[in-house]
Amino acid sequence: MTPVALDGGLLRPLDAPDCAPLAQALAAIDPWARLGYGAPALERYLRRDDPALARWVIERNGTIAGLLARRSPWLRGPYIELFAVLPGFQGNGLGGAAMNWAARHAAEIAPNLWACVSDFNAPARAFYARHGFAEIVGLDGLVQPGIGEILLRRRLQQ
Ligand SMILES: CC(C)(COP(=O)(O)OP(=O)(O)OC[C@H]1O[C@@H](n2cnc3c(N)ncnc32)[C@H](O)[C@@H]1OP(=O)(O)O)[C@@H](O)C(=O)NCCC(=O)NCCS
Q1: Ligand 1 neighbour 13 (Cβ under 6 A)
Q2: Which of 17, 61, 84, 121 has the greatest count of CB atoms below 10 A from its CB?
Q3: Whose CA is nearest to atom 44 of ligand 1?
Q4: Which stretches within the chain are classed as H helix?
Q5: Partner residues linked to 69 by β-bridges
Q6: 16-75 pLDDT, tens per residue?
Q7: What confidence tens digit (pLDDT) does each residue in 88-133 have?
Q8: Is 91 in the pocket of ligand 1 (CB under 6 A)?
Q9: Facing residues of 82 across strands?
Q10: Residue 142 Cα, ligand 1 centroid: separation in angstroms?
């Protein structure tokens, strides 16, 4: 994995020293806070050996601004398993640029790009809709009782 220049930032492979601060930052914000993922569980997720999971740090001006974790192969296309732009960096087009890159990469290899979003996460649902994802099916209580996760599919031109 080599770094990828984004409009307004950079995608680079996750390094070991990134894991603890990123896990803490993610655990402090929704959806992970409300879903009850603590920093230790997120740190284990970031560190664990998983050759099908590509983990990219989103950087802005040399500072960690977010994370994109992409599982591939998945279901006739990659699955965006974890995607976050941290609060101080949101609304500058970074998330959109990272998503556009993920979709371009996916279109080279498959006809679909998949993601999942919590039902209460209205801003992210709107973000995914603007980026061409359709809400396919609700997965009630997948992570927490009373909260649904929604499987999202973006069909790609090949
Ligand atoms: C959802 C999320 C990834 C979006 O990332 P982001 O970097 O804020 O997204 P963008 O800045 O590309 O787009 C969001 C909005 O910011 C504004 N925006 C986009 N580019 C902009 C720019 N260059 N300057 C100012 N504002 C801009 C727009 O209002 C944009 O909406 P649009 O898509 O209709 O244009 C981010 O908010 C996030 O990580 N949230 C918390 C975690 C989460 O919910 N993750 C996803 C589900 S698990």
Answers
A1: no
A2: 84
A3: 124
A4: 16-27, 32-35, 39-47, 94-109, 122-130
A5: 55, 82
A6: 999 999 999 999 999 999 999 999 999 999 999 999 999 999 999 999 999 999 999 999
A7: 999 999 999 999 999 999 999 999 999 999 999 999 999 999 999 9
A8: yes
A9: 69
A10: 25
Query: Quick one: 66 exposed, middle or buried, by C-beta within 10 A (0-12, 13-18, 19+)?
Result: buried
pTM of the model: 0.95
Report the top-level CATH class of 4-155.
alpha beta
Q: Whose CA is nearest to atom 30 of ligand 1?
A: 91
- 104 touches ligand 1 (CB under 6 Å): no
**Angle, helices 16-27/39-47, rounded to nearest 10 degrees:** 150
CA-8 nearest atom, ligand 1: 23
**For residue 69, how far is its CA from the centre of ligand 1 (angstroms)?**
17
**Residue extents of the structural domains in the chain:** 4-155
Nearest CA to ligand 1 atom 35: 93
